[in-house]
Structures are given as structure tokens and as C-alpha cells.
Amino acid sequence: MKNILSKTPILLSKIFLRIPVFQEQVKQNQHQSLKRRLRIASEQLGNNTIEISLDIINDLEQIAYSYPQYHWTIVDILTTFVRKNAAYMPQEEVTSNLSTKIRVDIQAALTVIARRDANKDSVNEQLDLSFTDMRGANLKGANLQQINLYQANLAGANLREANLAGAILSAANLAGANLYLANLEGAILSAANLEKANLSGANLHRASLYLASLHGAILYNTILDGANLRETKFSE
User: Fold this and answer.
1) Enclosing domain of residue 216
2) pTM for the full model?
């Protein structure tokens, strides 16, 4: 008994020395497991039923919340999913309706992108939803600052109070979109279609509207000071 007691401090010291090693192994195993989940999610998203895609999108959002180091990887997976599954269609292929019912899983991915913690975005990366068909999407209050929406189709989309400061919206279709109180400060809207869009109270300070079409747009209390309005079309 005496020998066992005399060895106890030594045994305990050895156990405590091994704890950091054990914790590091657990951490590495955890990261390997998460990487596998992200790889599988990237491969399976959009290749299964909409119900499974919704489950994957929900899982990705939870991982991004719990593990900030994977935040941008997950944002990239979701934006890639939207670009692949809501690819831009030439105008002649788009129906006469301004808006269309967006697919449920695409809307879910856009919702996660829109409500992400933008403070965790990578400094040198940019959200890219260019060349996408997002007609009728609900992006109310979305944080889309500095996003690339070049030639995106957002006709009839709800962008009420969205933050689009510095966004690239060149040649984008925003016909009939709701941009009430949206922040478009410094946005590039060259050759964009804003016909019949609601821009009431929107901030277009120093935005570029060169060659943009605003036929029938609602411009009540719209901030246009410092905006480039060269060859902007306001009426027929």
C-alpha cells in the first residue's frame, strides 16, 4: 500500500503531461471529421433531393457558426452551389414575367449567405453571385456589401434595406426589384436595368448609373448626390 501511495504523484504527473497531447489529438480528429463533412457537403449539395439539400445547407450554417475558421469555406460552397444551380439565362430564354418562384434550396442558401456574420469574411475574398438567375429571391436586409453581381438577374427580388454598398451590379437586371431603403453607396450599376424598381429612400451616393435604365423607377427620397448619372435613362 505504501509503495502505491508513494508512486501516486509520479503517476498523476505522467497523466497530466499526457493531457495536452490527448487534447491535441482530439482537436486534430475533430478537424479531420469537419473537413470530411465539408467535402461531402460540397459534393452532395445539389445532387440529391431538395429535402437533403436543405439538410446540408442547415448543417453548413451550424458548422460556420460553431467553427469560425471554416466560415469562408462554407460561404464559398454555398455561393458555388447557387451559381451552378441558378445559372444566368439569356434574356430571350427568360419568360415575360419579371419574377419567378425561386427554388427552395437556392433560396435557403441565399438566406444563409445573407445573414452570415460578415465580420468573419476573408479580407481578400469577395462574394461572387455573378451570372446567376435569382428572380424573385427574398434578400430583405441582406448583407451583400462589395458583392459581385455582374449580369445577375434579380428582377422582382426583395432587396428591401439590403446592404449593397460597393457592389458590382453592372448589366444586372433589377427590373421591378424592391430596393426600398437599400444601401447602394458606391455601387457600380453601369448598364443595369432598374425599370419599375422601387428605389424609395435608397442610398445611391457616389454610385455609378452610367447607361442604366430607370424607366418607371420610384425615386421618392432617393439619395443621388455624387452619383454618376451620365447617359442614365429616366424616361421613355
Assistant:
1) 61-236
2) 0.84
